Amino acid sequence: MLQMPPIHGPDVGNRPGTRFQEPRQTARRCVPFCRAVVVVAVLGFVATPARATDLHYTLMSPSFGGTDSVPYQLEQAQNALIAAHKAAQTAAAKAVVTADPYAPLISSITSQLTALVAHNIADKIVNSQNGDAGTIKSGNVAITYVNSDGQLSVTISSPTGSTTLVIPTGD
Length: 171
Hints:
Blueprint: H1 26-47, H2 70-97, H3 103-126, E1 133-138, E2 141-148, E3 151-158, E4 161-168
Antiparallel strand pairs: 1-2, 2-3, 3-4
């Protein structure tokens, strides 16, 4: 650390703001640091050559010889969606004309019967005792349940996948 000699003189203690304070030493400390910063900056500027690069433009559209096919694929997908929407509108217009007047009644009865069957199956599974297990099949759907160790495990399997539920029974 740099030590400065004490400043002596007749008016050192009489100047406002300097009484009972040590003289400032920051000016002398800053000079070597500032010189080092300037030297490093100059060397960095001189040592790094200025470089210029060529500008390259890459064509993006395959219509103009580019390689990015995403915009083209998005346009094709949008055209396919528009065509499918128009086809669905046409089919819906035809279906309205030839709709069965009893279709809502048939749909309602079917959904009510399905709900009753589902309720009966759920009651059988929930009311099973510890150690009970079973499988219920209907078409391509299989419901397997196992009640053991205070947990009821229910697996519902269909051609599209399976779902497993684990329910604590409190036994």
